[in-house]
Specification:
The protein is of the alpha+beta class and 332 residues long. It folds into 4 domains: 80 residues; 37 residues, no CATH class; 88 residues, SH3 type barrels, CATH 2.30.30; 84 residues, Alpha-Beta Plaits (2-Layer Sandwich), CATH 3.30.70. Helix content is 36%, strand content 24%. It has 9 helices and 12 strands. The strands form 3 sheets. The chain has a 5-stranded antiparallel β-sheet with strand order 7-6-5-4-8, covered by helices on one side. It has a 4-stranded antiparallel β-sheet with strand order 10-11-9-12. Helix 2 packs across helix 3, helix 5 runs antiparallel to helix 6 and helix 8 crosses helix 9. The longest helix is centred in the last third of the chain and has 25 residues. The N and C termini lie far apart (77 Å).
């Protein structure tokens, strides 16, 4: 029988659980570790990791008396959770007028992309906040009309597919090549990053995870076919490291003289190669860009994967050398 495993959490998952964990513990005094894990739908190891983050948090300036205290001896010995010096988290939150106003504006913006069940929560929160803002001695009415994000009009189709576990057919504009392509994807989640909306999905055409900007989606259709992996978790796209659609994962083999490129280009992985070389993985959206990079690093770099790109870059390099030799012979 296989042991039950819990998928790794993203940072937002852990923050959300920590914010709920402290009031839960304060209301009960002490809680057994396995009981807390069952309450939050995770395993004991994850709760223990959360607690080791928790005791490094607290009030500014972060001196020992400002931090939340976790009884590590009780945790490791009796497997019991006890926290102290966290009473301020149980007190009602008080917002300054400017803070409350900023929060209202942010919540109105969230309504543009919120799923129906989330939108209900946002609307209830807005009603309470706007009521509190208007209940002071000088009531003020705040009207917010947010500009819908580009691509917001296709959000209902995508959310429907995600909720039903259906695949999507996308016609997508690939900006790097100024062309359109059609592919079938397994949608996972929509994320708002800065001023744009993105779809995190598994792309069957690329055979890998991809991110699609919704304002570049020309057409989208919900299919009747189910996604290949219903349990796949959405990635956290807010960190800014994700790759756009139609990029290809390329592996370069670098000799020592070309290792400098890892400090100037965004790479996904670096590992030792044969004979003192370095194998570097990076996402590439343009074959021409890759050819230019390899020529710049020559003769200290070559493409090792995928094979078709390795051959294409090699042909380009040979053609460049042939052209140079013909030009040199003509000029001599």
């Amino acid at each position: 029988m296989n042991a039950r495993t819990t998928p790794a959490d993203s940072a937002p998952d852990q923050v959300a659980r920590l914010l709920a964990l402290v009031p839960y513990l304060l209301a009960r005094g002490e809680v057994r570790l396995d009981e807390a894990a069952a309450h939050f739908g995770t395993d004991a190891a994850q709760i223990e990791r959360d607690l080791r983050v928790l005791f490094m948090t607290g009030l500014s300036p972060g001196l020992p008396g400002d931090l939340i205290e976790v009884d590590i001896e009780a945790l490791e010995g009796e497997r019991v959770i006890r926290v102290d010096n966290a009473d301020y988290l149980a007190r009602p939150v008080r917002f300054a007028p400017s803070e409350a106003t900023a929060l209202v504006v942010a919540l109105h913006t969230m309504l543009d992309v919120a799923a129906p069940e989330a939108a209900e929560v946002v609307e209830r929160t807005l009603a309470k906040l706007e009521g509190a803002i208007g209940s002071d001695e000088s009531p003020r009415q705040l009207h917010v009309q947010s500009q819908p994000s580009r691509g917001a009009e296709i959000v209902p189709v995508i959310e429907s597919a995600i909720a039903r576990g259906h695949q999507l057919e996308l016609t997508y504009h690939v900006a790097s090549r100024d062309e359109e392509s059609t592919r079938v994807v397994d949608p996972r989640a929509i994320a708002s990053v800065e001023d744009a909306l993105y779809l995190d999905a598994w792309c069957h055409r690329a055979g890998d995870e991809r991110v699609f900007r919704l304002d570049r989606v020309v057409a989208v259709t919900e299919l009747d076919t189910p996604v290949a992996d219903p349990g796949a978790r959405a990635r956290d796209l807010t960190q800014g490291w994700f790759t756009d659609a139609d990029t290809t994962r390329v592996t370069l083999r670098l000799e020592p003289a070309a290792r400098w490129m890892t400090e100037y280009y965004p790479v996904e992985g670096v590992r030792p190669g044969p004979g003192g070389t370095l194998d570097v993985d990076l996402q590439v959206s343009s074959e021409a860009w890759l050819q230019h990079l390899v020529l710049r690093l020559a003769p200290h770099a070559r493409v090792v994967d995928p094979p078709e790109l390795a051959e294409a870059v090699l042909r380009s390099a040979r053609a460049t050398v042939d052209t140079y030799e013909r030009w040199s012979g003509t000029s001599a």
